[in-house]
Amino acid sequence: MTDASDSSSDTFISHLIELRSRLMRAVAGVLLIFVALFLYPGPSAIYDVLAQPMLASLPQGTRMIATGVITPFMVPIKVTLLAAFVLALPYVLYQAWAFVAPGLYRHEQRLALPLIVSSTLLFLLGMAFCYFVVFHTVFSFIANFAPESITPAPDIEAYVNFVLTLFIAFGVTFEVPIAVILLVKTGMVSVKKLREVRGYVIVGAFVLAAIVTPPDVLSQILLALPLCLLYEIGILAGKVIEKQKAETETDTDATEAARELHE
Fold it and tell me: What's the sign of the alpha-carbon dihedral 122, 124, 125, 127?
């Protein structure tokens, strides 16, 4: 009894040590990229890239402002750190994968790795869509809507918070196909059921967009429409998965029937 308890305790401690090691490697990877970005091209240049969509919509000669004393220093550092995390994301996810992989079955490992890779790519794709399409459209709309008596001068800290909120919203939105595939793959929901609740999903998409985006209709539509489209893509992928599962079950039944006849 004591030996079993000691063995369980040793296993738990070894898992904690492994987790600490993986976390330290992930943090070290992020910090290494942060230092590289800090040296070149530098926090100011990285922030200028992030601010480009807003600057393009402002009147000629207008710049953003900083109301805090240390804001001109801290905001670019914050943006550089976030950029380092995004660039190091594949390595961070690999460390997470390396920690959990030994406890997974072989078929779970084959499923988990493609899901990690695809979910990372979709999240980055959502951020890219937000940066190149949504920001340009929304900022231009707001600038054209503003009265001529007003000169827009956004605060850089408020701008970064706004940008990060939309980055996360669109990144998570682009994960919808992965969520739908997992639901179908695990048998929790069928494709037929997903089609039946399509109307509720569309309404929910617009409600969610109204909550997480600014109070203008344009940005809400730009979030809700991709969400609905990605849901449909998930249904199509789920249909393929159900077909493959049915074929696999048919082959298994045929093999078992042939074995019984042979016996």
Answer: positive
- Asked if 47 and 75 touch (Cβ cutoff 8 Å), the reply is yes
List strand residue ranges (DSSP E) for the chain, in order: none
Return the exposure string of 34-49: e unless at least 16 CB atoms fall within 10 Å of the residue's CB, then b: beebbeeeebeebbee
End-to-end CA distance of the chain: 45
Q: Are 130 and 166 in contact (CB under 8 A)?
A: yes
Does residue 93 contact residue 114 with C-beta atoms inside 8 Å? Answer: no
Instruction: List pLDDT tens digits, range 18-29.
Output: 889 999 999 999
* Entry pTM: 0.82
Which residues are paired to 65 by β-bridges? 155
Amino acid at 22: R
